[in-house]
Amino acid sequence: MYYYNPWNLDYKQPFGAIKVGNSMSLRFTTDQPSVLVTCVIRRDFGKRYEFSMTKDSGGDFRVTIPFDEEPGLYFYHFEIVESSDLGETRRFYGCSGIGGEGLLYTDENDVKPYQLTVFEKEDQAPSWYREAVFYQIFPDRFYNGNENGQINHPKPNSFIYGRKTDSPFYVKEENGDIARWDFFGGNLRGIIKKIPYLKELGINAIYLNPIFSGTSNHRYDTNDYLKIDSMLGRQEDFEELIQLLHQEKMHLILDGVFSHVGKNSLYFNINGDYGDDEGAAKNPDSPYFDWFKFENYPFEYKSWWGIKDLPEIDKDNDSFRNFIYGEKNSVLAKWNDLGIDGWRLDVADELPDSFIKGIRENLDSYSDKILIGEIWEDASNKISYGKRRNYILGGSLQATMNYPFRDLIINLLNGHRSSQDVAHQLMTLQENYPKDIFYNNLNNLGTHDTERILTMVGEKNLSVALAMLFVLPGIPCIYYGDEAGLSGGKDPENRKYFPWDNISPNVYNVYKSWTQKRLSENSLKYGEFSTFFTDRLLGILRYTDSEVFVELINPSEDELNIEVQEITFLQNLKFLPELKKLLTEKVISGKTNLELKMKI
C-alpha cells in the first residue's frame, strides 16, 4: 500500500499554493518494509530536482522542500524503489487526474504529476470588494433615464427598436458584417434612477460593460478612451453616478478594453470620421501608427480574431502603454481620479503579463482599487499563445472571472457531472490558486458572453444554482435582468432590454433572499471553504473559528435521506464529529438545497 493526499494536512503542509521563500513539507506512507522514496519535482518547462525522503520512526517517509527561487508552477510525483531478493523494482506515485488521493504507476512517462503553485506575494482585495454583491450592467439594455424617454444622440445608420420588449437581433450584410448596429437607448441617467432598485435588491457594487465612445451597442470597439459614449450621456452624468453610488456605500468598476479598438476610432480612423489626417489608417505619420500592424496599408491589418472592425493594438508599444497607464494624464489616471473603484480587463489572454502588471502598478498608487481579469479557464496554469501566463502569482490580477465555477454548477444541475466530479474540481481549483485569488474571484452564472442561467438550467434548478453562486468562495455577481426572470441563449438573445414592467416576483424574491443572506452571513464573506459528497449529494462548507455554514445540494429528482457513513469528506477538519451529528438523518427533497448552521 502506498498513499499520499495533498488535501490532507497530515500529508502536505501548507495546503495548496505557497509563497516564495516558504517550504513544503510532505509525508508519504507505505506498508512495504524495504523501499526508498524520492520526491521528484520539475520546474515548469524547466529543471528536474530529486529530494530523498527520510523514513521516520513510524515508517512514514518525510521531506521538507524550500522554494526560494522565482514564482511559477512546479510539478511533482514520487519515485519508489522496492527491494527484494529478486532485485529492485521502480514504481511511481502521482495524481489520479481528479486530485486528492493518487495512483501508482509503473512507467514514469505515464505519471500525472501534482501541481504546486508558488506565488510571489499575497494579493489581498479591498475590504469593500470582499463584502460585495456585484451587478453587471450592459448599459444600452438596462434603463433610459431621460424624462421623456428620448434617446441621446442616435448613431448614424443605426437601428432603434420600436418596443422595449422586442427581441434583439443583428442586422447583417450578406457577408455577415453588421449593416446597422441596434440600440434600445439605455443610458447613465437610467442607472442613476435605478440606484434605489439596486440597493433594495441587495447590490453594493456595479460592474459596467464598456461606456467609452464606440460604434456598436456593446462598445467593445472603443473610439475614444477619454470620452463617455454620447448615447450614454455626458461625463457629468458619469461623475454624478459615481458620487451617488459612493453616497450609498456602493462601488463601481469599469470594463477596460485594451487589446483592440474600433476601426472608426480616433486612433485608427479608417473611414475618416475624425478627419483626413487623423489616425493610423489615414496618416502614416500619426502618433498612433506604430500601435498597429499593417500587412498592406491601409486596408489590410492585424485585427482581433480576424474581425476587421477591431484593429488589434501592439500592447508592447511603449507609446500605447504610456497612454493607457504610464502617464499622469493616462486613460487609467483620468477615470481613477474620477473615483471609480477598479477595472475588469477584457480578454486578458490578449494582454502581455508585463502590460497587466503595469496596470496593477497604476492601481496600486491609489487606495482600495481592484483589478479583475477575464479568463475562462483555471488561471493558475493557463497557456495562451504558447506561453504560460503569470496572472495570479502576485502583483498582477487580484481576481478572475470565475467561469470554471459556472461550468461546474451548470453541469452538475443538468446531470453532466457527478457530485464527486464537482467536489474534486472545486478542491483542485482551491489547491491551484493562491488563497487570496481563490476567495477574490468574481463568480457569475451568466454574463454578456454566455447564455442566461434560466435558459441553461430551467426554473426548477434556479434556486439551487443561486445557492451555489452565493455560498461558494468568491464574490457573487448578478447579470442584469437575471433576477427579473430574463431568459436567452447566446448573443444577442442574452442582451434583451430589462423587463421593468414584467419582473417575475418568484425569481426576484429568490435572488433577493440570497443577496440578503450573503450580506448578513459573515462566514459567506470571510469563511474558509471545504466540500464533501455522496453519490448524489454535494455539500459546501464555509466556516470561521466560531461557526460553520453548511449548504446541501441535491441535483437529483429524488428525495435523499442522508446516510453519514456514505459521505466522503475531502478534508480532515477538526469539527467533523460535530458536523456528522448535524447531518445525521437529514432529508433533502429533489432539486433543492438545504442550509444548516452550527457553532464550534
Automatic annotation (TrEMBL):
Entry keyword annotation includes Hydrolase? yes
The record's keywords, sorted A to Z, are: Glycosidase, Hydrolase
Q: Superkingdom of the source?
A: Bacteria
List each copy of the Glycosyl hydrolase family 13 catalytic domain by range: 136-518
Short name of any one Pfam family annotated for the protein: Alpha-amylase
For the biological process aspect of GO, one term held by this record is: carbohydrate metabolic process
Which GO MF terms does the UniProt record name? hydrolase activity, acting on glycosyl bonds
> Does this UniProt record's set of keywords contain Cytoplasm?
no
Q: What is this protein called?
A: Glycoside hydrolase family 13 protein
